[in-house]
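Possible regression after last week's pipeline update?

I re-ran a chain I had predicted before the update to compare outputs. Posting the input and the new output here so someone can diff against the archived version. Not blocking, just want to make sure nothing changed silently.
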Amino acid sequence: MPVYDQSYRRYEARGALRRTRFWPITREALRLILSKRTFLLLLLAAWVPLLGHVAYVYVTTQYPEVGRVAPVDGALFARFFEFQKYFVILLTIFGGAGLVADDLRTGAILVYLSRPLTRRDYVIGKLSVLMALDLSVTLVPGLLFYAVAVALAPDTLLSAELARVPFALIGQALLVSATYSLVGLALSALSRSARVAGLALFGLLTGLELVRLVLTEAFDLPLAALLSLQANLSRVAEALFGVESGAAVSWWAALLVLVAAGAAALAAIRSRVRAVEIVS
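New output (post-update):
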């Protein structure tokens, strides 16, 4: 009778389930975050700029003389994302600081990974939490704003000149959400304290922006704009929405910096999660 090898074999889920193994992680994390009343208030506050911008479009359509001074164009949608960007930062800090840090501190990550989950499932599950939160204040209100604006000013927004706006909305929303989600998750993975991770994200974004301002204004170094994530996102938004800009930094250079930041964040997450025993 032949003797077969009975060494450990990793459990493999059915093919239909392998693509959604991350979902329980995302669902439970979102449930815990959204159970906090203060966080729900923050989400509601993030929709206030939408009301202001809709009112702006309404006024310009009702009073043509106002529209000649402040027209409805791509710059309007770029400014909309400037407002939403700050809410994305707040959501990432308060919603994402403890996503990995708390698991590392309590050892819950071992509980996750003792189940038929891979490192990829864990990372995608946690990253999906931040992406869902950030897209809820960028992509969703952005598309709603565009739909309302088209209803109020169809001749303007359905023109060939502004045909790029809906695609630019989707692209900018994905870029903003992915950038802050990756950086926020990386800082959470590099710490065992949610408070430290949140402060680190705020300090990093604020510090880089201050360095940019000092180098640009005091030392006349316009290329210092590449140091700031906020400045790079704004530069890409200008290119997407067709806004005239006299910036010394090209949009593709800003995009490359954002891609590099995302890649560095993924590498940090990968190295940190690999620090525990994982079946990959």
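Follow-up from reviewer: compared with the archived run. The chain has one domain: 21-273. Marking as no regression found.
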